[in-house]
Structures are given as C-alpha cells and as structure tokens.
Amino acid sequence: MTFEFTTAFMRKILPIFLFFFFPAFAIAQDVLLKGTIIDTTARVKLSNAVVAVLRAKDSVLLNYTRTKNDGSFSIGIPQNMKTVIMVSYPNYADFLDTVPSQLQQNNTLIDIGNIYLETKAHILQEVIVQQRVAAIKVKGDTTEFKADSFHAGPNASVQDLLKKLPGIQVNARGEITAQGEKVRKVLVDGEEFFSDDPAVVTQNLRADYVDKVQVYDKKSDQAVFSGIDDGEKTKTINLTLKEDKKKGYFGKLEAGSDANQYHYEKAMVNSFQKKKKFAAYVTNDNTKYESLNWNEKTNYGNDLNQNTDVQDDGTIWISQTSDEFSYGSGLPISTTGGLTYSNKWDADKQNINGTYQFNHLNIVGQTNSITQYILPDTTFINKVQQNATNMRQRHRVNGTYEWQIDSSSSLKVTVTGSKIKRDDNNLYTGQSISQENQIINETDRTTTSNGTENNLLTNLFWRKKFKKAGRTISFNSNINFSGRNSTGYLIAQNSFFDKLGFLTAAQNINQYKTNNENVAGVDGKLVYTEPLWKKTFLELNYRFGFSGNDAQRNTFAKDSSNGKYDIGVDSLTNHFKYNINSQSGGATFRYNGKKVNFSFGSGIGITSFQLHDQIQQTNRSIQFTNLLPTAAINFTPKAQRKISLTYTGSTQNPTLSQIQPLIDNTDPLNINIGNPYLKQAYNHRFQLSVSDFKVLKSRNLYISGNFNLTNNAISSSSNVDSLGRRINQAINVNGNYNGNIFMFYSFEVVPTWIAGFSSTPGFNRYINYINGEKNVTNNQNINFGIYFGRWSDKKVNFYVNADITRNYSNSSISPNNTTKYWSFTPYINFTAKLPAKFYFEANSNISIYEKTSVFTGNADIYLVNASLKKTFTKSDKWELKFSVNDLLNQNRGINRNISSNFISQTIQQTIQRYFLLSITYNFSKNGKPSE
Is the same domain home to 232 and 290? Predict the structure, then answer.
C-alpha cells in the first residue's frame, strides 16, 4: 500500500515539482544517464515513457524526461549523490532502481542499456508454485525452474540438474527430453553457446552458476517478428546465469584415470566482461561415448548419396541415415575443443556471436545383429557380425551478426561452415538360415572408405515494421554449398547353398569405388503482414527455391593380369545432374482474441525436377502442383490452461539416391537401385496440445498428439530370391500413416516430494511390396511410465523413473507371424550428503526385454554406477572422486526395431566396468551482485 500510494502521489505532484524545484537542481547535473525502455514480453520499444530521477534519501524529484520513438532516453543526474531512477508507463508495472554514487564519481556518461517493463496483466498471470523459494513458475507457454531449489550437489553439471527437474528426462547418452519432446536447442541467456550443442552446454557448465531453467517451444524468427504462427517450433531449454556470475571468469580443470586403460582430461573457462562473453573448452576422453548431434550424424553418415534439397515450401531438407554410432556403440577415443565469443555494442544495436569447434573421434567396436525377414511364402533369419574401425574429424565454425538498423528494421546474418574427414574400415561376416534351419548363404565382406566433406550455409533475415501497428515486411533467405568426395574398396566373398545344404554358387567381388557429389541451393521467403481490422491480420508470402546436385560414381574391377583397378564396371558407374526448382505463394488470416486465436490459409506450390544422365545423355523432367494449406486454433479458457490444434500440408521430394537409376552394391546381398519415376510425397500433419497447470497443488497435466498421413509416400519394393539376395527400389504408395499421444500428469505429494505418471500409445501403418505382393505392416506400442522423487537442499535426494512398453507387429503377407514383446526400463538415482563434505551418488539404468521366438538370447542389462566424492576448501573448489562404471559388468548396446516385413535386434559392443579416480579444480573470480 505504501509503495502504491507513493507512486500515485508522485505522478500527481510531478508537474508541481517540475515548475518550482527543477531549476534548483539543474546546476548540479553534470552526469548524463542514458538507456532504452523495452517491453519484456513483446520486445517492443516504448515511446513517451516517463523517466524520473529521485534523490535516494528522501524521494525528492530531481529531474524527469520522456523516451523517444525508439524507446531511448538521456537525462542529467547530480554527481556524487545516490539517486533512484523510476520509469512509468500506462498499464505497466513501475520500474525502480538505485544508481550508486560511486558509479558517478569518474563518469560523465553512464549507459545503463535496456530497461525491461512488464505489463501488469503479465505479472498477475505469472504464478508462483512453490512460494517459499519460487521453485516452479509458469509464464504463458514457458515453464521456469529456479535452479537453487533443486539441489544437485557441489560442482554438479547442468546435466545433473536437469535430471532432477519434473517433466525432463536425460538418458544414458545425454539426450534430453522435455514434456515428451526431444530438446533440440540449449541456450545460455537466450544466446547460442557453442552452436547450441546440448551436450557441450549441459556437461561442461556448472549447475550452481545457473539461476533459472526455462523450457519452451521456440518459434521461428519470422513467427516471433510477425506474431503469426508458422508452425515451426523447436523444443528449447534456456539457462539464465546468475548476475554475479556474469562478471569476471569461472571454469574448471578435471582429470581422472584408472592407472591402466581408461582416462579423461577436461578444461573449460568462461569469461564475462560487461557485454563481452568468451568461453573455451578442451577434452580428451575414452571413458564414455560423446554422442553426435543431428548435424554430425548427417555429416558422418555412411551414405555418400545423402542429399540436401530445397523444398517447395522454401526450407532446406537434409536427408540422413543412421550410422553405427547413433547409439553410442564401440570403444571411443574422443578429442574435442571449442571457442566461442559474443559481444554487443552501439547501445545493443549490434551484436555478434561466433563459435569454432573441433572434434576427433576414433572408434573400434563389434556389432552383432539378427534379423527375421518375413516373405509371402516363408521366413528366414539373417545373422551378421560387424567389426569396425572408424575415424571422424571435423572443424566447424558458426557466426551470427545482428544489426538493429533503426527502430523499425533489423538484419540478421548467420554463416555456418564445416570441414570433415573420415576413414572407415568395416569387416562383415554373416549367414542366412531358412525356417527349416538350413543355411541359405554365407558372406565375408570388407569395405573401406576415405572421404572429405565441405559445407557452407548462409542465412540472411531482414525485417521491417511500418508506422501502422501490425504492418510488416520481411525476407528470409538461405544459400548452401556442399562438396563430398570419397574413395574406397569393396571386397566380398559370397557362397550360396541349396535346400540340402550343398554349395550351388559362389561370388567374388574386388572393386575400387570413387564418389564425388556437389550440392548447391538457394531459397527465399518474402512475407508481408497487414492489419485488416481489430485483432485480425493478413499474411501474404512468396517462396522460391533452386537446388542442384551433381553426383558422379565410378566403379572399377581389379585386373588379375596387372593387379590394377582399371576395368570399368558400367552398371555401377554413372554421372547425374539433379535439379529442383520450386515456387509457391499463399495467404494466411490470423485472429488474436483474448481467449481464442486462430489462423488459416493456403498456398499453391509448383515444383519441377530435371534429371540429366551425363553418360547416356538422357533427360527426364516432371512437374507437380500442390495446395499447401495450414490451420491452427488456440483456446485459453483461463490462466495456465491451453488447448491448441494445428494442421499443416507439406511435400517431400525424393532424394538423388532414390531417384537416380544407379545400382548400389556396397552390400552385394542387399542391392539398392534408383527409380527415376518417383513422385513427390505429400504429408498431412495434425497436432494437438493440451496443458493445464494447477497452482495450489502443483499439478501439471500435459497432453500432445500427432497424426501423419502421407499420399504418394516414398516406400520400398523388395525382391528376395531363393538364395537370400535382396534388391530394393524406392516406390510410391498410398495408405501410410503414423501417430502417437504423449500424456503426462505430475503433482506434489507433500512439499519437495513429486510424483508423476505418463503414457505414450503409438501406432503406424507401413505399406511396401515384397516379391511383387503388397504388404501392409501394422505396428502398435503403448508405454506406461511412473515418476517419483524428492528434491531439496537437505541430505537425501532421489528419483525413480520407470517405463514399461508393449510392442506389437503384424504383416499381411504372413499373418501367422506376429511379433509381440514387453520391454521394461527403470532408472533410479540416489544422492546423499554425508558428514565431512562427503557425497555419495548411485544410479541404475536397467533394460529388460521379453524373449521371442526369434530373439531367444538374454537381452537384459542391469547397469549400475556409483561414486563417492569429497570436496575441499570452504567454497568446494577442490573435489576428489572415486567412481565405478557398470559395477555388474553388463553394459551392452541393445536395440530392437520393427519395420515393414522385418524385425531386427542389434547388440553392440560398449564400454563396460571400470574404476576411476579423478580430481577436479573449480576456479572463479566473480564480481558481487549489483545493488
């Protein structure tokens, strides 16, 4: 009441003070204070806001001014006097802060940067769930966790902290899931940190330096700018650092060894100087697998025919295949390093963010797989053992420059480049066995490949707002280049047997292969928005995209007479140029109401393909015209309750590897050939989201659903002969669909004790052709999960997360062969604070698979890890830790997959039991929080 009365009183007497008292203080004003007033939610610069300077000891008004059209202000303040700055604006909460007299002693100009105001309605909407420490807040679509309320222990990493937050899961590979969706970005103070690589941020940043963890769906830059949702969202975590950690520097040095085989060394430093940020890290590790992010998987994939295409909707589509490292298999030796720098200047009108990363990865490992192939008249089992020795090396740079040209326009330029080197050596041995338990074929195959890849992607985003509110124009464009080159050998010996087990045929292959591929593309999107009437807007957009792929593959057989690879194999040699040109235009209407907002629109897309065979001198052209509708509705009946439904129609282009009539015999028993008559696929995607947060009881209900139906889906046609050889070709089919629902409910049992339940039913239908016969495969799975834990700053913390899943698959070509099994994956974490600064932690990651008629072996894994550490010094700078990985020596990488007419299980070699003694030194030199 006192503060509100004072604020109202000051507003009323402000003109009187200006008339009588302002001249008395004008003489002493020899320090100029400047800044900018901004809306904290919409990031709109507020004009005509009142900025007043008060004397701190008695609140006497000394000076006042109003902000300009761009929200900026400058005002004189007395030197050597402690003053208070107060900012007022209609419908916004007042802002008050102290300007210490020490800051004014040696300055004639003080730039305090941006001052953010929050609307009163937004403040009322913000709900504090845990009143004692504000542990969880919900701000609109953002869930915010107060980091200090979830005790992660001294010197813990951000990854340790995330594991304790309700609704967030971190698996053994370090992959983060929030609210049922995989987290793609981790930001620090809203900015990219080492190219937003989640693993680097969460594993190397200390938890006690984080103030808040914010989880939200990050909209595209265009959607944020125009206010019209374009459906592009990325599940994102933003880490806001504590203010006192943004001055000076902090970092750590860490090393561990078992005095025999396993060791690791790490160093990281972060430096902050006003608006400048610098960070660097280096690691050398063979104790765990550093999983590759999605971009690395694309770059390091085994298929050199991976393609980068520009879609007819203006986006870049990068086709990718999983590689043998997708699940963290093998025994790695990893060396990584990185540098990042960011700065803001010119009153925050310009800023830059640059990152360099280096990665060198050597992996040796063994993978055993067993696959059941279901055919119209029979089934057979294929068993393969793979021994691999692979090397990956990558240099990557990423830079972003943003320029606020004036109060109405801005420019953002992003450049990403990488240089990759790879060396693969793989030995495969295997055999196929019929359902009568007779051998069909045997294989002994060696493949080697050495290659390089250079990538460059440039993005330019320009936007401008006009005087009329809601009228905007923007242009977003991408230019990309990629060059891939590789050479390698294929040496294979295959033997084929009859039904009685006698050898009937043998195949020997000794070939040298070269692959060269150059991809270039440009796309752009021009968007104009216009307010029609109150709360209603119109968006007009035009998109274009042009891409070209020049790919050449050569295969040479070995000449036994001279030992050289100089005999060309015409059927495995080709040179293609593949061009895609696309254009589209559309309109979208949007209504923004208090409780309901919706949008709908459509576009027309025209895409043409040109495939030119450079050797045969043949050409093929095809053109598609499609409608591209979108619709979305959001209903917010009350604060913290929201329902949304969206629909998007989009197209998918065939890749060069799918469309070129070229045989790929890398695996002679599984040959892939292209299909030049492939059509464009069309996807219908429906999304549902429901969220409800109960404040007083800390109850959280979240439901999301997805359903995808594809016309002209790109599927496969396989022909399997009696010797077990398979020829695959991409074809178009109709009737493919998939969907899933994620449901999560959590509540606070008693303060600091949280329980939760989840369920994820999913289904899909996949149509393909086997030996000319249509095959319809229906897969269903349903997952149930429970969560129970205790978070506090006391001696004992724990949480249990357990999931049980039922899997079912049936193919129409063999309805009697039904695959069904249960899997159970509990995860337990326990931490305890002991006397004398000792800390104990144990976790268990268990995977249990039900046996089937095909997978009869034991696939259960009981992975137990434990550690005991002690911290030294008053601020816990030093840490000595003894840990054991895989106490029961059972760690294996097991994965089951059900797809079309085959069911497979792979068991991959992974790091097993080891003991480690490590020491960590944490250093910092930080300023104190501002007054």
Answer: no
Residue 557 contacts residue 510 (beta carbons within 8 Å): yes
- Residue after which a domain boundary falls, among 241, 263, 294: 241
Stated pTM of the model: 0.71
Higher-scoring residue by pLDDT: 822, 204: 822
Per-residue confidence at 16, pLDDT binned at 50, 70, 90? very low
Mean pLDDT, to the nearest integer, of 248-256?
A: 87
- Return the minimum-mean-pLDDT range out of 176-190, 618-632, 785-799: 176-190
Structural domain of residue 96, as residue ranges?
A: 2-119
Distance CA 547, CA 918 (A): 51
d(CA 462, CA 889): 56
Over pLDDT 70: what percentage of the chain? 83
Which two tokens mark 515?
């692959």
Q: Which range has the worst mean pLDDT, 194-198, 473-477, 505-509, 672-676?
A: 194-198
CATH number at residue 626: 2.40.170
Inside any domain, residue 306: yes
Same domain, 90 and 138: no
Confidence of residue 45 (pLDDT cuts 50, 70, 90): confident
Buried b (16+ CB within 10 A) or exposed e, 69-87: ebbbbebbbbeebbbbbbb
The CA–CA distances, whole Å, from 105 to 99, 112, 287, 374 equal 11, 16, 54, 83
**3-state class (DSSP) for residue 244:** helix
Q: Tell me, yes or no, whether 323 and 466 share the same domain.
A: yes
Return the ∠ at Cα 728 (arms to 723 and 733), rounded to 5°. Answer: 130
Alpha carbon distances (Å) from 446 to 516, 803, 908: 21, 40, 19
**Regarding beta strands 565-568 and 503-533, do their DSSP bridges make them parallel or antiparallel, or are they unpaired?**
unpaired
- Pairing verdict, β 574-592 and 536-558: antiparallel
What pLDDT, on a 0 to 100 scale, did the predictor assign at position 738? 94
Domain termination residue (choose one: 209, 241, 273): 241
Q: How far is CA 831 from CA 144, 242, 843, in A?
A: 24, 25, 9
Residue 270 lies in a domain: no
CATH number at residue 45: 2.60.40.10
Distance CA 300, CA 666 (A): 17
Sheet of 72-77, strands arranged across: 72-77, 31-39, 109-117
Q: How far apart are CA 522 and CA 311, in angstroms?
A: 10
432 within a domain of the structure (yes/no): yes
- Together in a domain, 355 and 391: yes
What is the distance between the terminal CA atoms of the chain, rounded to a whole angstrom?
24
| 112-147 confidence digits (pLDDT tens) | 888 888 776 655 544 444 443 446 776 666 778 888
| Cα three-residue angle 681-608-232, rounded to 5 degrees | 50
DSSP assignment letter at 95: E
Q: Give the H/E segment covering residue 526.
A: strand 503-533
Same domain, 173 and 228: yes
CATH number at residue 218: 2.170.130
Q: Are residues 384 and 529 in the same domain?
A: yes
Concatenated DSSP letters of 16-36: HHHHHTHHHHHTT--EEEEEE
Check whether 539 has a pLDDT greater than 70: yes
Q: Is there a domain that residue 863 lies in? A: yes
Q: Into how many domains does the chain fold?
A: 3
Same domain, 798 and 696: yes
Q: What is the C-alpha separation between 724 and 731, in angstroms, rounded?
A: 21
Pair (70, 205) in one structural domain? no
Report pLDDT for 661: 66
Query: Mean pLDDT, to the nearest integer, of 247-263?
Result: 88
pLDDT class for 163, splitting at 50, 70, 90?
confident
pLDDT digits (tens, 9 = 90+) for 340-396: 898 988 888 899 999 998 989 898 989 888 888 888 878 888 899 999 999 989 999
As given in the structure block, the two tokens for residue 12 are 């009323």
